[in-house]
Write a structure and sequence with these properties.
Length: about 70
């Protein structure tokens, strides 16, 4: 009976020790700086950056086939 109680207390202590980082104070994070995300590579009216996609598709053969 003593072994069962000891095992239960030990496993409870291990679980409490593993949960302690989750109970810590949350980290305060600043808002991301998105001021420069308005160029053709990041403007995405359809969910993808349309103009950047078109330009990269047009330039792709130059990267695949060297001049």
């Amino acid at each position: 009976m003593k072994k069962i109680i000891a095992a239960a207390l030990l496993s409870g202590a291990v679980l409490a020790g593993a949960a302690s980082p989750a109970l810590a104070d949350p980290a305060v994070v600043d808002k991301p700086d998105t001021g420069d995300l308005t160029d053709k590579w990041t403007t995405a009216p359809l969910g993808i950056p349309v103009f950047g996609l078109i330009e990269s598709v047009v330039k792709a053969p130059n990267y695949i086939i060297p001049n």
